[in-house]
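In the previous chapter we treated chains in isolation. Here, by contrast, the input contains two separate entities that must be folded as one system, with a combined length of 426 residues.
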Amino acid sequence: MAPSTVFVDVGVSLDGYLAGPNRGPRNPMGGSSTIIHQWIFETASFREHLGMPGGARSPDDAIVKAIFARAGAYVTGRHMFEEGEVSWPENAPFHAPVFVLTHTPREPWPRPGGTTFYFVTEGIESALEQAHAAAGGKDVRISGGAATIRQYIQAGHVEEITLHIAPVLLGGGIRLLDGLGAADLALEQVEVVASPLVTHVRYRVLPRSRPGA
Amino acid sequence: MAPSTVFVDVGVSLDGYLAGPNRGPRNPMGGSSTIIHQWIFETASFREHLGMPGGARSPDDAIVKAIFARAGAYVTGRHMFEEGEVSWPENAPFHAPVFVLTHTPREPWPRPGGTTFYFVTEGIESALEQAHAAAGGKDVRISGGAATIRQYIQAGHVEEITLHIAPVLLGGGIRLLDGLGAADLALEQVEVVASPLVTHVRYRVLPRSRPGA
């Protein structure tokens, strides 16, 4: 069986931020940064995923639906988990196994709706191996945050990146690509889909920037 | 007659830089940043504009052609002019009046092929007025560099911004949007065109971020 694809899929502002300047457990997205994600809140598939009614069946919706469908397991950093732990609904929005990078051992934490959080203290390689094994042949999504995504990029594990570029400026916060250069991440642009609220661009990570590949 | 549109049109890296880290008169684009512009060098219209043969008639080419056709006059900062003065061909690539912001008075400098550089010491408003008057009903392009573009954005004069987002990282250099926030620049995404080498996104600047409009 061909190994599944490791992908990153994040919304960013036009000035490159994935979270605003005042991020923390009580303010997971950092101030005004939810405006980056306005497009996704208006899609039917995202609302279904959270158990909410309404939303549109649009080109944006088709993209969200495909992202959820392909991900068989997730990897997240500790900060992202801690922010989500206090803000996600009980029926957490993954509906799949989620491997959380941490230094603190903890028993697996199953949630209603098919999400189980597994806490991995053995590092990023171990978390990725466990996610591959749990994904049932589907793809593995490195969810975030930015530092976790960069670690996986620099280790050469990320094969595909989709950015949802919103026409908004945050003016500060956490930049996804800060600290990375051309040697860390060489890309081929493979697909662009636009709607009035966002430009979706999918990139393949080229083998020359993936020493481990 | 409706006043002509003031627009910005720049190529940027995926990490938001319009020039690389080692920019200067002998290295106008700053190190490896010419890779941002690879797509434009391959278009027939850009090569014609520089008096060079070859190039493709592609969707990218149609975009370049339209940009050249709409600009009746240009405004540039002093640094951009000084960099260009030593690197542009004698037949400078504007073929239109160019208003250069400077503190040093200088006589107009006509070049073969229809470019004349006018040196404006009275500030950005004066340069824009002169450019409007010289544009013959066509649009005015604020060419750059980044600091000049930001000045015009913050003064509320820029009505439209096109970014050509290349799938490359520079990892350092000059960021177009640094120092700007949502209050300085509110955008509506109006058109997206993609080719394998670049994503072209055109934004309208919304009146709420244009106090002078």
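Chain A has a mean pLDDT of 91. The domain at 6-209 of chain A is CATH 3.40.430.10 (Dihydrofolate Reductase, subunit A). Compare these points with the single-chain example from earlier in the chapter.
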